[in-house]
Each structure stands twice: as C-alpha cells, then as structure tokens.
Amino acid sequence: MLALFRRAVVSVEFHRLVPLVKQKVRSHRSVVPKPSPLDETVTKRFVVELAAAVEAKFVERKIEAQKRMEARKARREVEQRYNGAVKRRKWEDPPDDPEAVKNFDPASRVKRRKSIILLGYSGVNYFGMQRNPGTKTIEEDLLRAMLKQNWINDEGFRQPQQIQFQRAARTDKGVSAAMQVVSIKLPDSLDIEALNSELPSDIRVYAVKRVTKGFNSKTNCDARTYTYTLPTVAFAANDEKVDILTYRLPAERLSRVNEVLSLYVGTKNFHNFTSRKEFLDPSVKRFIMMFECEAPFVPEGTTAEFATIKIKGQSFMLHQIRKMVGLTIAIVRGLAESELIEKAFGQERYGIPTAPGLGLVLSRIHYDKYNKRYGEDGCHETLEFEKEESMIQEFFKKHIASTIVETEMSTHSMMEWLEKLPLHSYEPRDENDTSEWKPRNQKASADGDDDE
User: Fold this and answer.
1) Helical (H) or strand (E) element with 10
2) Please, are residues 174 and 153 in contact by the beta-carbon 8 Å criterion?
3) Are 211 and 116 in contact (CB under 8 A)?
4) Among positive and negative, which fits the CA dihedral 32, 34, 36, 41?
5) What is the pLDDT of residues 14-55, one digit of tens each?
6) Could you report how far apart the first and last alpha carbons of the chain are, in Å?
7) Is 424 buried (19+), middle (13-18) or exposed (0-12) by CB count in 10 A?
8) 186 pairs with which residues across the strands?
9) Sign, Cα dihedral of 194, 198, 202, 203
C-alpha cells in the first residue's frame, strides 16, 4: 500500500509539473530560444529528484516514528511500579496441560479480601520485623507459617506485595512488639489456633479482622506508642556508686526524668536523633504527643528496680527513640546539660548517644480516623482491639517483659552501655564528618521511617 501511494505521489507530481514547465516555456518564446532536447532531460531529472526527495521524507518520518515508539516503550518499562492491585494469578494463565483447562473448576479459586493480622512478638532473637533474605526475621516466620496453613499461596510467599502485604511499623533488630498490625489479602476461612501452632512461641497472632478494600496498615495509622523498659539505676548520678539490685529511684529524680522528657513533646526537628539525615530534610520533622516515665516497679524473680518510659508519636525514624532516651539518661546523670536538647533541634550537628535496643517495645498502633469513619457504619469492625487486650497483656508479660528483665540481668547491656557513656562527646560535630548523615546531593532513604 505504501509503495502504491509513493508511485501515485510521483505520478501526480510529474503531471502537475509538466504543464507548468510547458507554460513557462511558451510565455518566454519571444525571449528564450526553443527548448532543446537537453532542457527536456533537465525537467525529467528534476521530477525524478523530487520523487526521490519525497521517498526520503517518507523514510525519515518512518524512522522518527519508530524511535518515538521505542522511547515510549522504554519509558513505560522504567516507570512501571506496583500500584497495589493484585496481579493475575497463576490459575488465570493457560496451563501447559490441556487436561487442566478442561477439568478446571472456576468455583475452586480462593476469594481473598483485605484483612489485618493483629500479632505480638519478642524480637530479642530476631533481626527485626522486615523480611531480609538469609536472616531470621518476624515476617519470614509469619509468612512461612501462613503458607503451611494455606492462608497464602507460593506466589504470595515469594512476593508478598502480590497480596498487598504491609506492616504498620518496621521494628529494628532486638525490638519487640506487644501489638503489631499487618494488612494483607486473606481467604475467608482461617484457623488462628492452627496458625499459632506453626509459629514459634515468641510470635503470637491474636486476631484477624476484615477492613476496607483500600486499607493500608502503615498509611492509615494515626500514631504509634512505644515503651522503653530499663533498670532505674540508669538514672542515678554518674559519680554515685550504686548497685543494680538495691538501687531505688527517688521521687525527685523521677520528676527530673519527666521534666527532661517533656522537652521533646511537640513538633521538632529530629535530624540529630537519627542517621544520615540533614536539617533541611522535611522528613526529620516529627510530632511527639506524649513522653513520660511511669512509676518504678520490681519484677518477680529479682530485686532490681525497673521503670517504663512511654512515648506516643505520629511516626519515628531509625534509632530516634533510643537516641532520645540515651540523651535523657546522659542529662539526668549529669553528663550533659538539658539545653543540649534544644540545641539538637537546631541546624548544628551533635553526636547523640544511642541507648541499647533491648528495652524498646512497640506497644500500640492507633487507627482513630479509620474508626471514626468506618467503625460505626455497621459493615466494618473498629480497630481498637479491646477484646484482644487480655491476650496482649498475657503475651507481653510472659514473652516480652520477662525476657527484657532476664536478658538485662544476664547480659547487663544497660550497665555496659552506662560505663561507656562518660566517654561520649556532646560538643558540636564537624560538618565535614559524614559518618552519620547523608550529603545534600544524595537521595535520602525511606528506610528510616517507622523503623525503630
């Protein structure tokens, strides 16, 4: 078709040009001599060259169009990302065996709906919540147990994003969770007791609840509450000789602890309380709703006194809570001035000590806006977890609180950290030292969000 069109164009151009040339020749007969055979040759050559130019233009435009198509295809491949929609399942693709197509029953496919899994875990023996090939993580054990109980299929186990898997918070190595929320697409028929039988004793699923189709356990979360449990001897004066088994925190010293903790409340710039973040990075501004130390207590089986610090905020960055606790301890012990907290919120860079990770626990996940919008519509459950509170407290006391106390008394992680604390420098750091922060021209990592 294209070749016929080109010949038509050449023919049209030839028949249009020949009369024009003849007319031009007749109008100049009185001036110009009668055309010679050579002039006819020039005319024909002109028409041939014109046809060749048209042909070249067609080829040029075809090449340009092909380049544009290839560029668009490459751009789509680069920009293509997972958008939360479930991709085609294996059963939707034509099987290799023709008999499988003939015997396939559409009713046998598993219908999955968006749900949340409410669980708790002791993170002492794990390298964090998030799945990491070659390491022992909470997600790895959870997904493997769900695969055995047919809550998910092989594809969902290998690629959890296919079933819209998302966790409310990524806890770091050694960090526990009395309450963690995972959103995922699951079938209707589930056996929680059977799943728990597949899980190790330090991971426990409390409940499964149906949620809205677009629910995301992380983005729909309004706030997170963490606790940090530590021996009260950590708040003793640095030059005071004390014993962890006999020390008791005086009331006035507890008041001093809460006075320092209150300095963190509000929207602050926490670039000094995480790693590799700049002052001008928008992500370093976080809102702290509450930060306080509760009354001390003596756990069963020991004479050592412990206390629990509770903090509630919208979200937290990597090591942020542990650095806030670390600086608080340094100030209460007399190793730094309380003014250092306000200075750390400024642009100047300071080195902030990081407290051990043992006592840190993800205590609560808050979904207040979701509950207000969907909790009273008669179709969805509220995400307040009052029915599961007794199970949460039982698991916390048996597998988390007791583990924190036993591990501290056997490893003395806090006591060893306190011995090194006086060696820490609280002077401003050199801006050229990039060991704990990322230069302006380097892209900030999103892994720092909600990663305590």
Assistant:
1) helix 2-27
2) no
3) yes
4) positive
5) 555 555 545 654 555 555 455 555 567 777 777 788 888 888
6) 67
7) middle
8) 113
9) negative
Residue 276: domain span: 223-364+388-423
Q: Say if residue 205 is in the same domain as residue 228.
A: no
| Interacting residues of 248 by C-beta distance below 8 A, sequence separation 6+ | 232, 296, 305
Mean pLDDT over residues 299-305, rounded? 93
Q: What is the pTM of this model?
A: 0.71
CA distance 273 to 330: 14
Task: Yes or no: say if 294 and 310 are a contact pair by the CB < 8 Å rule.
Answer: yes
**Can you tell me which residue has the tokens 């794990």?**
126
Looking only at the bridges linking them, the beta strands covering 166-167 and 223-231 are unpaired
Tracing tokens 């060696």 back to the chain, one arrives at 423
Tell me, yes or no, whether 339 and 408 share the same domain. yes
The helix (run of H) or strand (run of E) holding residue 30 is none
- The answer to whether position 145 is within a domain reads yes
The single-letter code of the amino acid at 4 is L
Could you read off the pLDDT of 152-208 as tens digits, one per residue? Answer: 999 999 999 889 999 999 888 889 999 999 999 999 889 999 999 999 999 999 999
Q: What is the per-residue pLDDT for 3?
A: 55
226 annotated to bind ligand: yes
- A 10 A CB-CB count for 169 gives 24
Q: Kindly state the tokens that stand for 419.
A: 């011995």
Does residue 172 have an active-site annotation?
yes
Catalytic residue among 105, 141, 172, 430: 172
Q: What is the CATH number of the domain that holds 171?
A: 3.30.70.580
